[in-house]
Predict the structure.
Amino acid sequence: MKAIDHIVITGASIETLSASWETLGFTPTPVAQHPWGTINRLIQLDGAFLELLSVAQGASIPKAHEGAFSFGAFNQAFLNKRQGPSMLVLDSSSPEKDRAAFEQGGLPVFEPFSFARIAKAPDGTERKVGFDLTFTQNPLCAEMGYFTCFNRYPENFWRPEYQQHANTAKKLSSVVLVAADPGDHHGFLKAFTGVGTANLSSLGVSIELSGATLKVLSPSAFESIHGYACPVEGRDMRLAHLEISVTSLDAFKRAAKTDGGYERGGAFVLPADQLLGTGLSIVGPRSA
């Protein structure tokens, strides 16, 4: 069963975006730059991470062309509309198998894409990291990006020192999307995740992945559960909200320097407008 590898969260300024998460007690990795013009910092959790991403000033972003997906161009276009979560990424054990599964599920596929770079650890040592990305697309809407990520050197990528957060954050436990009719996207999500069954209810669609839950809620259900609105247009499906479990909810509140947020359903909720487009539910160990 696949797991969530990471969530791409896009902001107009990497400095402003990073600061918004650091203010909540998260510890992002140092800034790194992709050769195609985007820059990022990562928030490593237990088995998954958040990729804080922006477009470098003056960068020359490669354009997409037929059969090829441009990661940089997609996120640049996303930023022209809004900030926040732009891409949902699952882990991969084989790019070839992912591509075949997407084709079998009737999903579009793009040219294989791979890259590698040298990452510098806090102690100054340099280690090679590399990834193979297998992109696909939701046939009903292209507002969100989807791909799998094969990590060639996980022993070099994951660093214990970057998984220590002052707010005691440990795990990405749920990812919440919003659609006017969640059932419209049921077939795509089954084909993308490879999960043969999904839970359908009056609230929406729920798919159990390895270590996390993927939910698609209607706008009314989302607002009822999380306490703030997330409007969507037409048949769009929008990644709106993340649930992160912490070792201590009290420790999170002490570390988070914010006047916003509220208690709801046993979680501490930060609406999307307080975190540059990303909504958060922080849950303690008893409710995780």
